[in-house]
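HUMAN:
Just now I want nothing more than another pair of eyes on a protein record. I would be glad if you read both lines and explained how they fit together. I have put the entry right below:
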Amino acid sequence: MKISVIICTHNPRLDYLQLVLKSLEEQTLAKKEWELLLIDNRSDKSLKKTVDLFWHPYARIVRENKLGLTHARMRGIKESKTEILIFVDDDNVLNKDYLEQAVSIAARLPCLGCFGAAKIIPLFEKQPKKEVLEVADLLALRNILEDKWSNLPDDDYVPWGAGLVVRASVAKKHSAALRQRKSNMQLDRSGHMLLSCGDNDFSWTACKNGYAKGVFTALRVSHLIPDERLKKSYLCQIAEGHGFSHVLLRAIHNKSLKIFQEQPSSLEIIKAIFKNDTEVILRWLRNIYIERKQAPLKRAVMRAWKRGIDRAIIQISRATRKSEKQNLRH
């Protein structure tokens, strides 16, 4: 077998999951060349009683009782038997040639440690309003028009979780790093916590180990989006999770936070006022002016993102001070 397809799911919407499985059943790559692992991440009802994978000769349903997408992915990596892993979410409908194209790209470009879809197209349950479409990138949608890859882990061509392809060697190094650093567990969804960046972390691992990562137009995914994910409360929650996780990801990999300098944190603003730091104060006032010109939903989303950034900076500061105190004691 060439590929392990790993679906990680927690309390899935069964009609969506059936569409995901149907797209896999119709793949052009012969079923004898890939295995299917459905990781049931502590769903309330065991998926073994509700999902039938009779159509695939090498399919298994595996129960993982540690809640969280990271734990589910680690279990999938442990259970897999091939050199190429493809992670599929329970709302991702792959194009019929996705697996075949992934095998071809991996063979053609052995420098790639992980890669994914350049085109992640929405299939909305209900057509959203214009103001929602303005922030729809929060829902992991993209339409990149040409193949792009590099060994820079934080550029615009990081493969996302929908159809993420990872070499087994990179996946195993990633799992080993996760076991050593508990903070990595905060980079992905866990129950109702809408954190992110676990898929980005694969790119960091790949690049640190001499590989590249990228996105390819031959890989296409349709993302099933239910109506509840278009509500303001959900969009703000996911924006806050993104802000938090992006800062934490950079801190884990000892990367500076310059990317966030355009949006001063609350701590920076307070310090700037006391120090009469004109540059930071003007930047803050400019952002307020820009915010007021934005549509109400986009304004709320940007504020939520900033809350996530602030929360992560505070958490990192506390952890740093605690570590420094412990080092002084020793």
